[in-house]
């Protein structure tokens, strides 16, 4: 098993002049959080013991740093927490940033985890006999209405979006939509539901994000955490 070593880091990034409550780091639940764990360790962040317990009712957790708390939220909500200043720092996928395009978010680091893609998929039989480029209208099931509208509008196609939060793969077979736009990692779920990936809209990875106002008001503390994550990534890539 790989032994994690942490990079040499300063003690606590907060400074007396910038204290005013702990900084809040918003982290996504699920698969990305599992991939993120080694990077957090290398950055010297150890959340409370029950943070990794998906059954824990707590949503906010103290860490080994007096001036840093972490919150565990849905991946789509990380950007909203950071954009509105409820969290100062966060980790979320580039797909979320593309969908919401918050101007209050600065994304200084690509963490290189959570790699996947936002793609268009359609039933295998439909893909074999029709060319989407010839269509003028299409119904699309997705949790990414902004991305879907933008993608099809650029191709001169009017998209009617059916907004779903999950189980997109069912939409074509049940007559809800002709196509879907969704995250794809291996394509196995598409294949199991009779769909095929026909267009890649964007390749995705997770980013470290910060609130722009917080970066101005607490530059030393937040800058120090950005530096810690950057150093942790460099250490991981050197192994």
The neighbouring-strand order within the major sheet is 2-3-1-4-11-5
Terminal CA distance reads 14 Å
Task: Give the tally of β-strands.
Answer: 11
Determine the number of helices (DSSP H or I, runs of at least 4 residues). 8
Kindly report the average pLDDT value. 90
Helix content: 25-40%
Radius of gyration, whole Å: 20 Å
Structural class: alpha/beta
Query: Spans with pLDDT under 50 lasting ≥5 residues?
Result: 1-7
State the major sheet.
6 strands, mixed
Pathway: Amino-acid biosynthesis; L-histidine biosynthesis; L-histidine from 5-phospho-alpha-D-ribose 1-diphosphate: step 1/9
EC number: 2.4.2.17
Protein name: ATP phosphoribosyltransferase
Domain ATP phosphoribosyltransferase catalytic: 74-230
Word description of this protein:
The protein has helices spanning 31-42, 75-83, 94-100, 124-129, 145-153, 188-192, 212-217, 219-237, and strands at 23-28, 60-62, 68-73, 89-93, 105-110, 116-123, 137-142, 158-163, 179-184, 195-204, 206-211. It is α/β, with parallel strands linked by helices. The chain has two domains: 16-114 and 205-237, D-Maltodextrin-Binding Protein, domain 2; 116-204, 3-Layer(aba) Sandwich (D-Maltodextrin-Binding Protein, domain 2). The chain has a six-stranded mixed beta sheet, sandwiched between helices. It has a five-stranded mixed beta sheet with strand order 8-7-9-6-10. A hairpin with a 5-residue loop joins strand 2 and strand 3 (68-73). The radius of gyration is 20 Å and the shape is elongated. Residues 74-230 form the ATP phosphoribosyltransferase catalytic domain. Its main location: cytoplasm. Heteromultimer composed of HisG and HisZ subunits.
